[in-house]
């Protein structure tokens, strides 16, 4: 079908780095004129159909900076810290004597249970990631926020008067910091667990009742707008975790059509754990998963530190790319991409060699892996079925690096590279001669990636 045809674009030529020359070039001027003409034509077409005037803001919001912000869709497009900074600013502009503003939400992240957003006038917004042990901590269990999560409608605590021994511990800290009044209310979200909003002031006498009444009236708007920001952050986190950083950015920007790919030049890294089958037979499933996670952590972090992108996990192995063009990675040239991939593989091997804490059933075994490196043109984009897509790379270069990784075991070498990779690197690798790779008619020259 036409809509499913692959749209593969050739690599674009390098762009000039002289921004001023680009802006004043005939091509840039013509493109700007074309955009202007199209905008003018659309404006004329809209006017020809007698459009309605813009929707006016509700009358009750015109005297409230806070309501105006929360009704503005643009307020949900920034990041979390920017939203909190702007919210605090408009609350202060509306007369709330704010010294502190706090909220938080569940993060839906494998390492982060929740995120807390804390604003004060001196530091602005600080975002704190909380681990999965936070719900069992004394800090959380003795906090008013826990009771908000359990269904409480809120608390107010005047701090100018002496506190009782059984009061929330946080109140003693706030009082010592000069806070005179503390107020916390729930924020009910539609899709995730309810959150909270707490405010504090250092003004003598604390908050006035009308000030708190105005804040209460804004809480549904605050909850709706905050939830849009939170969900966008969660979506970005999940896309990044499951797709990788670059693929997540592309998918979020609209690159979602099946078969839509782009031809890029990249160094590829493939790796595979040695002895995985034996380890799986000797270890309980939970221990094996833990060991596999720690092994993949080592390799993934080495790839990321070198500027690469993990494209997919393949059981006990992975495939990573280091793009040499397209702006998809830190590398700008073939040699830089190849060097980054080689550095990542060597660093991962060094860390695996230092890995000591293998489970007892494995005896004196060491954690070992085979790494293969290749370089060339690959198609990068959405590939799969109508109901399940994968943002990955395909092409002969991908097939070859997988076959080369299998040769690591045959040659008892931890790191091998192809002739294409060695050429991209520009030298420095030792040839191991030509070897047959499964699926290839002609033998392939193979290089050692270590200084041996």
Account of the 3D structure:
The protein is an alpha+beta fold. It folds into two domains: 65-241, GAF domain (Beta-Lactamase); 256-448, Nucleotide cyclase, GGDEF domain (Alpha-Beta Plaits, 2-Layer Sandwich). It contains 14 helices and 15 strands. The protein has helices at residues 19-24, 26-48, 65-71, 80-93, 138-141, 144-149, 169-176, 209-243, 245-252, 276-282, 285-305, 334-353, 396-411, 419-425; strands spanning 7-9, 100-106, 114-120, 124-130, 155-158, 181-187, 195-201, 260-273, 309-314, 317-323, 369-384, 389-394, 415-418, 430-435, 444-448. The strands form two sheets. Strands 1, 8, 9, 10, 11, 12, 13, 14 and 15 form a nine-stranded mixed sheet that branches. Strands 4-3-2-7-6-5 form a six-stranded antiparallel sheet. β9 (309-314) and β10 form a beta hairpin. The longest helix has 35 residues, at 209-243. It is globular and about 85 Å long. Mean pLDDT is 86; it is low at 1-24 and 327-331.
In short:
With 452 residues, the protein is an alpha+beta fold. The protein is 40% helix and 23% strand.
Q: Notable features of this structure?
A:
single chain, 452 residues, alpha+beta, Beta-Lactamase, Alpha-Beta Plaits, 9-stranded mixed beta sheet, 6-stranded antiparallel beta sheet, 14 helices, 40% helix, 23% strand
Helix content: 40-55%
What's the helix-strand series?
A: EHHHHEEEHHEHEEHHEHHEEHEEHEHEE
Separation of termini? 53 Å
What is the strand tally? 15
The main sheet comes to: 9 strands, mixed
Mean pLDDT: 86
Q: How large a portion of the residues is in β-strands, by DSSP E?
A: 15-25%
Gross morphology is globular
Low-confidence stretches: 1-24, 327-331
Q: Provide the CATH architecture of the largest domain.
A: 2-Layer Sandwich
What count of structural domains? 2
CATH H-tier superfamily of the largest domain: Nucleotide cyclase, GGDEF domain
Strand-pairing-aware structural class:
alpha+beta
